[in-house]
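User: My collaborator and I are trying to settle a disagreement about how two of our proteins should look. Neither of us wants to argue from intuition anymore, so we agreed to look at predicted structures for both before our next call. Could you fold the first one, then the second, and keep them clearly separated?

Assistant: That sounds like a sensible way to settle it. I'll keep them separate. The first protein:
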Amino acid sequence: MSSVAPFSVANLDLHWSSVRRAWAVHNVRRGAYGTGLITLGSLTPAYLPQNSPWWRMLRWLHLTGTPARVLGTLLVVAGLALLVDAWFRMRPGAQPEGEAVAYHHLKHWAVLGIWGTPFLLAPPIFSHDAYSYAAQGWLIHNGINPYHGNVMLLPGAFADQVAWVWRRTPAPYGPLSLQMQHLIVDLTGFDPYLSALAMRLPALLGVVMIGLLVPRIAVDLRMDPARAAWMATLNPVLVIDFIGGAHNDALMVGLMVLGVWLAFRARGAWLPAAVVIGAAAAVKQPAIMAAYALPLIARPWASWHWREVLVTALRVLVSFALAIGSFAGITHLTRLGWGWLDAVDVPGMVVTFSPFTIVGQAAQLVANWFQLDPSGDALLRISRGAGLLLSVTLIAIYALTVARRRPVTFLAWSFLVVALCAPALHSWYVLWGGVLLPLTRPSKRMVRTAVYTTVVLLSYAAINLAWRNSVSAVDSMNPAVAVGVAAVAGFAWQVRTHERVTDARRRRRHRRHHDRAGSEDHD
């Protein structure tokens, strides 16, 4: 795919022709059909709050019983299969030689736009977070600080949309994110569902920045922009979670990518880039870590000589000072304060399948069985604490080693460590570092791991959807669950087939190149 080209409003005809050219490719259409099916399948009890306007239509069509739930699960699973298959087939080098030329001239942003379009009017996909955003904006409109209260302080349509596990927790997000939620609620006329739907607007802004700038950073690093675009911006997890799910992580990552791109522009550009990172952290706080990498992008840490260490340390301190100053300025302007400091543990209040939580839960189960822990949660807390300690240790090691000459690699690895070692793990957390991973010169093994991780995360989403679509939590034999389980097997078959076909084509291409070189030497 041709991934780096000037994008300007003045060239709308040229851009529209790029979209038409992309639509003409059958694998691009395949991905669009996939996201279209996911959109249709999302009109299901699994992710629709009871006050959603879609319920009136579903009840009128008698689509609320078990057959409709199974149908919704089938549509989503089929859509996921089509989208993943299209993504595999779009991989640079995965096409037969006769098709490679057509793919080379595709614009990745056009493909991303085509795949994401069906989600624009869909209810939030695979998550209820957008409904929480709307309820938090409603709180601010009514003079309640979401850091000091919860959505149940205002019972009604906004609160009813929020997943029950988050109804009595304070907001953990940055102040810029909360005030944007407030603005969107005001602009949508205080409509609960439309407010949640409009939370896609800041997420789309983040996706645009990711889609346009990741390939350009790849060029700055002398890497293949097409491979970076395929692995990061066309990744099905990004399409589903950032566009479909409307997560504010999209804007955080987009601003972070903007900061990194700015740091490559000129020697002093890391200074305004640090201000941008402060804004990214005001959306979601983990972005502040990127401030460490910015001065190292502009000027690598050359040696351990004391003068070099001192200069590097001063530049890093200036970067953090600018980022924190930007964050503090935004906090002052929003008048929401620093209450998020008391809510940093909110995401971990719900048990998710994060590695250290799984280990802690297993150990806790054994301890409780033998009545070894009177508190009932000590081992879980110890395991989670160990995960946090490991993440801090690894990031410190990366900061003193990897970051010296490969600051973007430091960011990718560190954000992945944070996501995997945190008490709570969601697929959109993995994208914090996953978007930057193709900029690390990943090995074939790492690319294969990223592909498998993508499929695992989507398989979990399919199982979670199927379970939610059961008539009740105890109805484990509901056919929707069986569909979800079957989907996992289907995704595993997909990825194995893709790897075999890709490896075979790579070997044939290498053999043909070797034979051609041999014949030229013979001549």
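The second protein, kept apart from the first:
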Amino acid sequence: MKNISKYTRGYFMPPVESMKWAQKEYITEAPTWCSVDLRDGNQALVVPMTLEEKLEYFQLLVKIGFKEIEVGFPAASETEYTFLRTLIEQDLIPDDVTIQVLTQSRDHIIKKTFESLKGAKNAVVHLYNSTSVAQREQVFKKSKEEIIDIAVSGAKLLQKYAAETEGSFKFQYSPESFTGTEVEFSLEICNRVLDVWQPTPENKVIINLPATVSMSMPHVYASQIEYMSEHLNYRENVILSLHPHNDRGSGIADAELGMLAGGQRVEGTLFGNGERTGNVDIVTLALNMYSHGVDPELNFENIPEIIEVYERMTKMKVYDRQPYGGKLVFAAFSGSHQDAIAKGMKWREENECEHWTVPYLLIDPKDIGREYEGDVIRINSQSGKGGIGYVLEQQYGLDLPPKMRESFGYSVKDVSDRQNKELMPEEIYDIFIKQYVNIQSPIEFKNYRFTHYDDYQTIVNINLNGEMHEIEGEGNGRLDAISNALQSNLGIVYTDLVYKEHALEIGSKSNAVSYVGITAEDGTVYWGCGIDVDIMTSSVKALFSAINNMVKNKKLQIEKGSSVTI
């Protein structure tokens, strides 16, 4: 990078060390949340929302549980003025929800702002003016005292028009571009505004400290917040609010450390929409708290529904890796990750677990409306036996033996690799059915019967090369007798027959499923699966499937009475 010399740090540290926040481990209670989606978020959209879209979005925010919602800048836009009046006149604002409006420190703008609020039950009027060195020098060309005069005059005008307007109003002040302002000056201007408003326990005010442009590492913002928190006048009657932006990608960290440092309220948006790189993402902030066992007091139990409305209203997309909301944030493609998740889920089924500890999953996806099958275990060429087996078991009730699961895993990975794509559960199931289940060629099983149950003598009817044959055998058990009949009559040689069975529920129909593995003389293990309403028949079908897979793999010609070493 050639132009490094043109940059330097543009923030200001507090005049004294302010690091008490660093002694705290985690956030212990939810802040007051204020959604600014309909103002800060909306003004950043390529195509701002229509009146109808804003009304639907407002209802979404209410449903999520926001108790403070910034609805716009009514004096600056006819659309926002109309939106506010619609909310009030159609009685769309619940009694426990406070709307917030933004205003500059100018008489006619403040006057129109209060006119727009006529009839509102509860409202926050948010006054702001820019205070940073860059804004003072380059934009306003005003001294510090002149900037203070703008804020103080605006504070007095809020008092004046509030007294003349019916309703319950709370005041808020923001030294905009706080992060580029000398901390001592931020404190001075905020205290001058507080001296005008004289907050009381019954009439608290909000001081909002925005990272209008994120300029520092998060610990610096936290130290700035702590200094302000400890030195503001009327502190017990001040609600200290944070408004981080994400220019440096640290909006979440700024907000979290800012709360440790004294922040009691957070302004942000769903999924971080907003100017430039966006506002702080309230979804992530809230669910981070949730992952620590702290109630965020917002309801994100149906993230897919929230995303659908968000994307439709804003015409923006939630990125696949967006924390909690993205399509892939719970997805595990890696074989070792899938295996750990599958074992963790099984552990929960077998043990009484008070807390969520499943490897690789920060929270239970089901808590926010996500599904394990489609959202967590995803299958491609990087996947392993654990994940593939988990999909078959969860989706289709097939609990494969470990070695069969491993063998099938290689088959699935090979298909994914050759097709260069992710495989859906139904595709995995289809591969399994075609490769293992009730294989009828080249040796087709027709039926069997036992002539002597004491010593398990059996007669098996098969179709071989288009001809029906009846073969006999005996053994230590029924499946062993049928296996011996096949080996002795067809000359097939294998050892180490492995067997597993379990019930299989498919819809309202109950079946039995069996798995059989056999080992050829070269050490290769071949697998088969049988599904039938009868458990013994499913076992026989599994055995035939395993033998047929072995015969086809070796490309052997089998005839009755032949002798074949495999």
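Some points you might bring to the call about the second protein. The first strand starts at residue 32 and ends at 35. The chain has 18 helices and 14 strands.
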